[in-house]
Amino acid sequence: MTQSLWYRIGLPVGVFVIFVAIWQILSVTGTLNPVTFPSPLEITIAFGELVTRGYFWDATRITLLETLLGFIIGAALGLVIGALTGTFRTFRTAFYPFVVAFQNTPRVALAPIFLTWFGFGITSKVVMAAVICFFPVVINTVAGIAGVDENAKTLFRSLGASKAQTFFRLTLPGASAMAFAGIKTALTLALLGAIVGEFVGASEGLGVLIKELNFQLEVAMGFAVVIFLAVIGLVLYGLIELLEKRLITWARD
Amino acid sequence: MTQKDSIAVTGEAITLTGVSKTYMTASGALPVLRDIDLHIEAGQFVSFVGPSGCGKSTLLNIIAGLVSYDTGTVTVGGQPPREGRDDIGFMLQKSVLMPWLNVSKNIELPFIIARRRGADTAQRVTDLLELVGLSDYATMNSWELSGGMQQRVALARALALDPGVMLMDEPFSALDEFKREHLNIEVAHMSERFGKTTILVTHSISEAVLMSDRIIALGANPGRMVGDITVDLERPRRPEMIGSDRFQQISNEVRAALSQGMEESQ
Ligand SMILES: Nc1ncnc2c1ncn2[C@@H]1O[C@H](COP(=O)(O)OP(=O)(O)OP(=O)(O)O)[C@@H](O)[C@H]1O
Ligand SMILES: [Mg+2]
C-alpha cells in the first residue's frame, strides 16, 4: 500500500505540533522547571536572537566544514579501501580483520587522542569525523562487492571480460547501492564526529557554542542550537538521498 | 537491411574426445565426468538430459571454456574453447541482466566487452530486439520486464556477436509452462533458420525431443553418456508434434536410456 504524500508529511507534522503543544502547556503550568527546561516559545525566541549574532554563523560554518571535509575524506578512503578489500583476496586477508576489530571499538574514545595529535583547530575534528565515516562505508562496500551476483560474474567470464571491465561494468555498479547505504550512514555520523570532537576540545564550532551556552545557563539558546543541529542533519540526509536517487536509479524496494 | 540478413548462418562443429573431469572439494575428489566422446555436427541441435548432478552443466561449461577438464581434448570450430570467444553464445537459467542498463544497453554489452562496438552496432541491436519480439521495449529498464521478456533479452544478448555455437543451460526452466513452450519453439525456429550449433541442457524430456536433432542422455556418478538418440521429427517443429506417436516413441527411448543409466549407477 502506498501512502499519499499528505498522509506521509501530515502525520509526522501533526505529531510534532501535538508534542510541542504539550511541552508548551507543561511549561506554562510550571510542571517543567523553566530554568533547566525552557518552553518551545522561549527556545524560538532564543533562536531568533541567535541568528542575529555573527558568532553563531561562524560556528555553523566551522562545524559544517569539519563535517563535510571529514565526510568526504572518510567516505572516499572507505570506498577505496572497501573496493581493494572486496576485490583482492590478499588485501582482504591482510587488512580486513583490523577493520572488523576496529569497527567494534567505540571510536569516539579516540577524540582526546586526536586532540593531542592535531590540536584545537579544525584538523582534529575533521579526523574524528573521517574516522567515524570510514567504517560504515568500508563495510558496506565490501558487502556490496561480495553480493555481486555469481551468475553475472559467470556471464562476464563467458564474454571474456578483462579484470578492469568486470570491475567497472559489473562490480562497481553492482556494489554501488549497498555502498551508498554506507555513505548515507556516514554523513549522519560525520556530524556526530565533528560535534564530539568539538566537545572534547575546540575553540570554535556549534559543539563549543552548546557547551558555552550551558555554562552561562543560557539553556534556551543551548536547546536552540541542538534543534538547529537536528535540522542540519536532516537537510544533509535529504541532500544525500536526492543524490542517491539520481545516481542509483535502478534499486527498487 | 532486414534482421534475416544481419544474422548470419554460421554453425560450428564441436568435438570432445576422452574428456574427464574431477572436482576437488573439501570432502575429497569428486569425479563428475568420465570419458566423454562426442561429436556434434555444425548446425546440429543437441540436448543434454540426465538426473540432477550428473554433470550436464559441467559438460556445457567445459565446452564454453568456463571450466577446465583433466583429460581429453575439446574443440569448438576446430579451436580449443576459452572464455571470450565471439563465436560462442552462452545463456543461463537466470537472465542476469544488468539492472543499471536498459534493455538495449544490455544487448549491447557483449559488443562493449569485446571492444567491437561500431557504427553498425545500434542497427544490430535493433535487429536483435525485433528478432526476440521486444522492439517496443528498447529503452525500458530490464527489471520492469516479465521473467519471459527478461529471458528474451538474455537470448538477444547471447546472439549479439552472432555466435556459431549457442550454449543454453536450462534457459527457460524458471518460466511458466506456456511461456516456456512458446520460447522453446522460437529458439527451435531460430536454430533452424540460422543453422547455429546449439546445445540445450534440460530436465525435460519432451522439451528435448521437441527442439533437438539429437539427445544425449547422461547418467550420474560419474557423469557419462548412456544414450545418443536421434530425433527425426520434421522441421519446422510445432507444439502439436508433442501429441504424435513418433514423439512418444522418441520420448520413451530417452526415458529408457535414462533409467538404464540410473540402474548402472546404483
Ligand atoms: N565448482 C564446483 N566445485 C565442486 N563441485 C562441483 C562444482 N560444480 C559442480 N560440482 C558438482 O559436480 C556435480 C555435477 O554438477 P553439475 O552442475 O554439472 O550437474 P548438473 O547435471 O548440471 O545438475 P543440475 O541438473 O542439478 O543442474 C555435482 O555433484 C556438483 O555438486
Ligand atoms: Mg546444471
Please characterize this protein's 3D structure:
- Chain B: Pfam families: ABC_tran.
- Chain B: InterPro entries: AAA+_ATPase, ABC_transporter-like_ATP-bd, ABC_transporter-like_CS, ABC_transporter_ATP-bind, P-loop_NTPase.
- Chain B: This is ABC transporter ATP-binding protein.
- Chain B: Belongs to the ABC transporter superfamily.
- With 253 residues, chain A is mainly alpha-helical.
- Chain A has a single domain (43-251), classed as MetI-like fold, CATH 1.10.3720.
- Helices cover 80% and strands 0% of the residues of chain A.
- In chain A, α2 packs across α10 (219-247), α8 packs parallel to α9 and α9 packs antiparallel against α10.
- The radius of gyration of chain A is 22 Å and the shape is globular.
- Chain A starts with a helix and ends in a 6-residue tail after the last helix.
- Chain B has 266 residues and is α/β, with parallel strands linked by helices.
- Chain B folds into 2 domains: 1-87 and 164-266, P-loop containing nucleotide triphosphate hydrolases (Rossmann fold, 3-Layer(aba) Sandwich), CATH 3.40.50; 98-162, no CATH class.
- In chain B, the strands form 2 sheets. A 6-stranded mixed beta sheet of chain B has the order 5-6-7-3-8-9, with helices on both faces. A 3-stranded antiparallel beta sheet of chain B has the order 2-1-4, with helices on one face.
- In chain B, β6, α6 and β7 (197-201) form a beta-alpha-beta unit.
- The relative contact order of chain B is 0.18.
- The interface between A and B is medium-sized, with 20 and 22 residues.
- Bound molecules: adenosine-5'-triphosphate and magnesium ion.
- Residues 56-57, 169 of chain B line the site of magnesium ion.
